[in-house]
Amino acid sequence: VQLQASGGGLVQAGGSLGLSCAASGGTFSNYALGWFRHTPGKEREFLARISGSGGLIHVADSVKGRFTISRDNAKNTVYLQMNSLQPEDTDVYYCVADQSYSTLSGTTRLPGYWGQGTQVTVSS
Questions:
Q1: pLDDT of res. 107
Q2: If you average pLDDT over every residue of the chain, what do you get?
Q3: Which of 29, 83, 91, 109 could make an S-S bridge to 37, C-beta 3.0–4.6 Å?
Q4: Long-range CB contacts (within 8 A, 24+) of 103-107
Q5: Chain centre to alpha carbon of residue 37
């Protein structure tokens, strides 16, 4: 499956930004989807995951209450809504996919499919 993320950009602290990730090349509902962020020199960080049906959702404690993940299987798209952004949220954001929801958080292995990344910059 191929993933194409969009929606990154520059936002002021306290603002909001919504990321989208369109998938192609596979049966979308067969894949759990998620988001990570990573910049070379910084630790790769899991943010959120959602199961193929959308019935299971897990958001990392570090962003819980500010970030929301959702998906639209009719549009083959997963979303990450980010609110109350802070300068420390500045990073490159990646959408990911895997047929295993349980492993999508990256604790046992990294997800099998990665998008190209989209830059989010939060100014103070």
A1: 85
A2: 95
A3: 91
A4: 104/32, 104/33, 104/34, 104/49, 105/34, 105/46, 105/49, 105/58, 105/60, 106/36, 106/44, 106/46, 107/46
A5: 8
Model pLDDT for residues 28-69, shown as the tens digit of each residue: 999 999 999 999 888 899 999 999 999 999 999 999 999 999
> In the block, which residue shows the tokens 């193929």?
52
- Token pair, residue 82, equals 């980010």
Q: Judge whether residue 13 has pLDDT over 90.
A: yes
Which residue is listed with tokens 């099998």? 112
Give the E-state strand segments of the chain in sequence order. Answer: 2-6, 9-12, 17-24, 32-37, 45-50, 57-59, 67-72, 77-82, 91-98, 113-114, 118-123
